[in-house]
Amino acid sequence: MSLAIAIAAVIPGLLLLVYFNARQDYHLSAEIVWTSVLLGAATSILAVVVELPLDLAIRQIDDRLAQSLARAFLGTGLPEEACKYLIVVWIALRHEDYERPVDALVLAVAVALGFATFENLLYLVKSDDWGRTAAARAMTAVPSHVINAMLMGYFLGLAHLASRRARLRAALFRVLALAAPTLNHGAYDLPLFLIDTLNQGSQPPPEAALLHLILGFALIIGVGSLLALAAWYDLLERDAADAAANRPAFTIRGLPAPLRRLEAGFWLLVGGLLTLGSLVVGLEGFVSPVRSGPEWARLFPQYFMLASAILPCLFGLAMFGHGLGRWRSQRRDGAAT
Amino acid sequence: MSEDHGISDDPAPHAPAPDDTAPAAFGEDGLRLYLGPNPGPYVAFWERARASGHPFVWSWNWWGLLFPLPWLFYRKLWAIGAAVVLLPVLLDALIGFGAKAGFVLAALVAAGGKPLVVERAERKTRTIDALGLLSQESIDRLRRAGGVSRPGAVIGALLMASVLALAVHDALPVRLPGCAAPMVREVVIDIARDNAAMTGLGAQVLRLEKIRQAAVAGEGHGRLCHAELRGGGESLPVEYDLLWRARDEGSFVVDLRFRED
């Protein structure tokens, strides 16, 4: 059972980590990537220790809305993102292999995946129904950490680009590198904490409030993901322009030839399965709806499943697209030779 | 104490002045260049190990034993430092054997610290040589790879403090919340709202005031609390027992009664 839990906890993070490394042509050495993952995992313990007294203090707040706001932004978002930020800025970006602005994004993602994977493992070990928890966290919590890390890495990459010319602007980007993921993390947690708080009362929660919260949750996930993807592509473009203007050639660590031949197929398969799987899960509530109970009890699972499927579906599409790109370039290379 | 001085305040690396030739093979110059501040104990260990010809040479490092995480992170042994944090927690979560593993790992760091630093220096030198960079680039890169990290030492200290704080937190007995704890007040108000017909206060906004512990309950493990339930300008004296339901899980039960004063 322990081994099964460990595998279930590690696989989502591992898959995303390999994907991000592949998207950067394996530029970073395995050492810096895995060191970042391990340090991200270690720093989750620091986050827990910071969160414990904060949580106790926040629970003294009587107003439920204020308590949920404080829990989401100050009690969870800020400590977790600050711990990751410490590792990314003080350790990962000082490694001798860190050369390109876009590396900041990959390293932030590596730290976040280490953090999320270890947190995942601790959740699953404590859970009574670890299979369901593993599936739910693989679809929501792990990709959500990645989205926050992408925002952090984007601003750190911009700070890297600005640091040569405008120090003040670079400092502003460093502040944004902490503020943006903290806000996104808090916004993601807030509807969940509010639902949790509403469900704690002995009275049934107001139906309209629950539905609005779940729609808000879906909207936040959607907007956050699109912002992170836009930030990533923007950084890739700026990085390419900077490379053309300022930088000598950098090290590319490609895959060994046999693996390179399998790579396109791997990403097409994994991306396709992830997209289809998340669509099936997301639409399940509509295909086989709950037919009894009040309206909110019927609609709640539908919207919640749909919202939870957004992130894995987007990542699945991105992986599939990457596989397609690799397959085309392999065909082009084959035709040229 | 051993001859290793670990964390040093010396800001200037005791490295040879950069010239236009990169270190061709791993030697004392390369080692000193990599080590940065306070290279003496490591160079002495490297020479001793080279002279003995044995694969394992005994060494000891008190900093590694007493402050394993700050020392490992200060010397940029990141992955090993992270493993020292994670292994005890993982072992504790998976097979319930964590605290002793922490002491064993600290002893291993004390015994293996210097060999690890020297081995990393050799490995980094080889890796950087293999990149085929210009000599000055090679030297700069080796210097960046080596040396020490003061922020790393701070992060290591924070992590070590966190692990110790978690161990102390887990060892402390779980305390029953007080009569006026917010979660207790919430439960009392919810029960009162569910029994609106009995209280006569209706389902309006209720507050719990004048809360005090009147006595101990549940054979000395619980609390008997007195308070006033207020709503819509009226008040009702109440008392409630606060008892453990499952102490190891931290869950408690509230038994509310209406008090005749």
Q: What summary fits the major beta sheet of chain B? A: 4 strands, antiparallel
Residues in helices of chain A, as a percent range: over 70%
The main sheet of chain B orders its strands as: 1-2-3-4
Write down the oligomeric state.
heterodimer
Largest contact between chains: A-B, 35 and 37 residues
State the helical fraction of chain B. 40-55%
Q: Say how many strands of chain A there are.
A: 0
Total of helices of chain B:
10
Return the structural class of chain B.
alpha+beta
Order of helices and strands of chain B: HHHHHHHHHHEEEE
Mean pLDDT score of chain B: 79
Number of strands of chain B: 4
Distance between the termini of chain A: 50 Å
Distance between the termini of chain B: 70 Å
How many structural units, i.e. domains of chain A? 2
As residue ranges, the low-confidence spans of chain A are none
Would you give an account of this structure?
The complex is a heterodimer of chains A (337) and B (261). With 337 residues, chain A is mostly helical. Chain A has two domains: 2-254, no CATH class; 256-337. Helices cover 84% and strands 0% of the residues of chain A. Chain A is built from eleven helices and no strands. The mean pLDDT of chain A is 84. Chain B is an alpha+beta fold and 261 residues long. Chain B has two domains: 28-171, no CATH class; 182-258. Chain B is 51% helix and 16% strand. In chain B, strands 1-2-3-4 form a four-stranded antiparallel sheet, with helices on one face. Chain B is elongated. The N and C termini of chain B lie far apart (70 Å). Chains A and B meet through helix 2, helix 3 and helix 4 of A and helix 5, helix 7, helix 8 and helix 9 of B.
Top keywords for this entry?
heterodimer; A: 337 residues; mainly alpha; 2 domains; 11 helices; 0% strand; B: 261 residues; alpha+beta; four-stranded antiparallel beta sheet; 10 helices; 51% helix; elongated
